[in-house]
């Protein structure tokens, strides 16, 4: 009988098996001693050593330090590393790593990675903006302050940074970028002027990763009771309000004169996402009960004084819309891509994956094309999307991790591949 085999023999056999076979054994074995034998220290130690040998570029750990870890520690690190491999498999791309960052003293409110992947930014209480150089072996938080700083350029101590976004103007993000963030003052007596939009030009100073910032704009915003969503490009800034969106042609704005328009939404939807497109268009995603809607608007500028920022005037024309019902609450959209001729975005719905294309020069030529039959409807009870890109994504369904891909042309170019994980790895999946 299989249960008569000594556990140490089972452990020795299992220590020479690949991870997938060990998972299968744990599912097949009903006897507790046999299951425990497949979870022995020697089993996970050999798996980890084999992984390090095959992946010398990985930051998993070195072989000497692995041996001193407990069984649970080895298993946790190995399964997490294995998960990262499946999520990030992409030839020619930078291999993902893990680093422990020192926190700044103010409480962090929002974080974002600048284009290029080298600098991580965090907005904090007291409206301080910190960054870390992720190429450093031991990244330290650095307080970023404009070099032309004066009393009007840097937010006061009563402010909190609630949102961050980035813009690359010159093609290479490592040579410089623009950062925009919203600062909110919780201590002002007049809440109508309690938020400001800060736009800074950020340039690396040398190979050490030190950044230098210069103020471009500081714009007053109407107070908004909840956290704002916003999007900006080299022409526009769009920021959500209750039942409306305020859009600013920020390069033409000053601290006493705003070039803006306000888009008023007829119903009372929740604005889930907003994207500025070119110099005169806005893509808005909303949710009202179970109905989700995507709408593309053409904008017209409206000049108004700072004292009139609360005025709600619609100067936008809807040129395309799409309504869809999503019982699957975890539906997802990718970031907006621009290929030089069209703006593209991927939308995951319950019946498949769709590609939205918005021509830059022909606003009425918007198309929505199904590019994958990956069916969330059949798996929605225990499915969760983790990533969605221009040509691939990943989704957890129960204890399986699916990687799926697609092209912007036909569903025949799509594929999907499922990988089985034990339930013990689920906490890592949930944190992605």
Automatic annotation (TrEMBL):
<feature type="domain" description="F-box">
    <location>
        <begin position="1"/>
        <end position="47"/>
    </location>
</feature>
<protein>
    <recommendedName>
        <fullName>F-box domain-containing protein</fullName>
    </recommendedName>
</protein>
<dbReference type="InterPro" id="IPR001810">
    <property type="entry name" value="F-box_dom"/>
</dbReference>
<dbReference type="Pfam" id="PF00646">
    <property type="entry name" value="F-box"/>
</dbReference>
């Amino acid at each position: 009988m299989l249960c008569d085999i000594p556990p140490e023999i089972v452990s020795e056999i299992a220590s020479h098996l690949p991870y997938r076979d060990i998972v299968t054994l744990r599912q097949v074995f009903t006897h507790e001693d046999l299951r425990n034998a497949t979870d022995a220290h020697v089993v996970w130690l050999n798996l980890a050593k084999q992984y390090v040998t095959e992946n010398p570029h990985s930051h998993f750990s070195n072989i000497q330090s692995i041996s001193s870890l407990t069984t649970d520690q080895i298993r946790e690190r190995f399964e997490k590393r294995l998960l990262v491999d499946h999520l990030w498999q992409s030839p020619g791309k930078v291999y993902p790593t893990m680093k422990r960052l020192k926190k700044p003293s103010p409480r962090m409110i929002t974080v974002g990675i600048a284009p290029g992947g080298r600098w991580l930014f965090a907005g904090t209480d007291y409206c301080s903006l910190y960054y870390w150089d992720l190429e450093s072996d031991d990244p330290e938080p650095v307080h970023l302050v404009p070099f032309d700083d004066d009393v009007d350029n840097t937010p006061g101590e009563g402010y909190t940074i609630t949102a961050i976004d980035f813009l690359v103007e010159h093609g290479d993000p490592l040579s410089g970028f623009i950062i925009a963030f919203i600062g909110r003052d919780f201590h002002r007596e007049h809440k109508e002027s309690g938020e400001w939009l800060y736009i800074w030009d950020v340039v690396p100073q040398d190979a050490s990763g030190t950044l230098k910032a210069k103020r471009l704009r500081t714009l007053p915003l109407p107070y908004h009771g909840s956290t704002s969503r916003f999007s900006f490009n080299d022409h526009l800034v769009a920021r959500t309000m209750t039942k409306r969106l305020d859009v600013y042609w920020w390069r033409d704005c000053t601290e006493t004169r705003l070039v803006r328009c306000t888009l008023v939404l007829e119903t009372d939807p929740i604005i889930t996402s907003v994207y500025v497109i070119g110099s005169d268009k806005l893509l808005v995603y909303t949710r009202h009960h179970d109905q989700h809607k995507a709408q593309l608007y053409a904008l017209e500028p409206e000049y108004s004084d700072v004292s009139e920022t609360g005025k709600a005037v619609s100067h936008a024309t809807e040129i395309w819309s799409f309504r869809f019902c999503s019982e699957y609450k975890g539906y997802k959209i990718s970031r907006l891509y621009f290929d030089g001729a069209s703006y593209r975005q991927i939308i995951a719905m319950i019946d498949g994956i769709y590609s939205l294309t918005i021509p830059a020069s022909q606003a009425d030529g918007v198309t929505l094309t199904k590019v994958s039959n990956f069916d969330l409807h059949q798996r929605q009870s225990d499915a969760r999307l983790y990533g969605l890109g221009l040509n691939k994504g990943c989704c957890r369904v129960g204890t399986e991790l699916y990687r799926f891909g697609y092209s912007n042309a036909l569903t025949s170019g799509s594929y999907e591949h499922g990988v089985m994980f034990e339930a013990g790895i689920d906490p890592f999946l949930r944190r992605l």
